[in-house]
Amino acid sequence: MPCYEIDGLRPVIHPSAYVHPDAVLIGDVIIGPRCYVAPLASLRGDFGRLVLEAGSNIQDNCTMHGFPGTDTVVEEDGHIGHGAVLHGCRIGRNALVGMNAVIMDNAVVGEEAIVAACAFVKAGMEIPPRKLVAGMPAKIVRDLSAQEIGWKGDGTRTYQELAVRSLATLRPCTPLTEMEPGRQRFEMPGVVPLVDAKKHGGA
Question: Which of 34, 144, 178, 180 could disulfide-link to 148, CB 3.0 to 4.6 Å?
């Protein structure tokens, strides 16, 4: 994978974590146990320290960066959706940052909170635990339900399992020229969008 030392600091990756070969890690980056770092994620620890704590994930096209003397942290079981930007902030334990959201310097996303897709969390904002925030700029919308927090936890466990699957079986290959008869699908019962979960399980 593109992994770079700068000024004598090199990334640290726990052996049980999976970092895709097309992710980029530079400098003061700490990847904890059971983490998953997706393709094209950029973790630039050339100014401030970047930390993914145990069981967290950062998905495709995400960016992590921060100012000198700061830590940008995703706490245990944090979940960072596709295309999100984290800059000098802290994401609390078991919190979720939605796709293409931006979290600015010194912002704190509380434990088990959810930041909606495309939200802009301004510098210094503190989001209390178990709240939903949305908008540009982001505002607190409401408390999260137990179902929503449970759905988030299930999704994060799916990414922890993906780290295991990727370490075991993901490898470069030559593509087929046509689809084979009876091509199998991935069997992942219960892994559904929240909107579908609410339809079947109530709000």
Answer: 144
Reported as a single tens digit per residue, the pLDDT across 116-134 is 999 999 999 999 999 999 9
How many domains does the chain divide into? Answer: 1
Compute the distance between CA of residue 190 and CA of residue 183 in angstroms, rounded to an integer: 21
Q: How many Å apart are CA 35 and CA 56, to the nearest integer?
A: 5
Its pTM surpasses 0.70: yes
Indicate if the alpha-carbon torsion angle 64, 61, 53, 77 is positive or negative.
positive
Residue 105 falls within a domain, yes or no?
yes
Contact (CB, 8 A) for 156 and 57:
yes
**Alpha-carbon separation of residue 34 from 42, 58, 163 (angstroms):** 19, 12, 7
Structural domain range at position 90: 3-143
DSSP string, 13-78: E-TT-EE-TT-EEEEEEEE-TT-EE-TT-EEEEEEEEEEE-TT-EE-TT-EEE--TT-EEEE-TT-
Q: Is 162 exposed, middle or buried (0-12, 13-18, 19+ CB in 10 A)?
A: middle
Please give the structure tokens belonging to residue 16: 């049980």
pLDDT bin (cut points 50, 70, 90) of residue 57 is very high
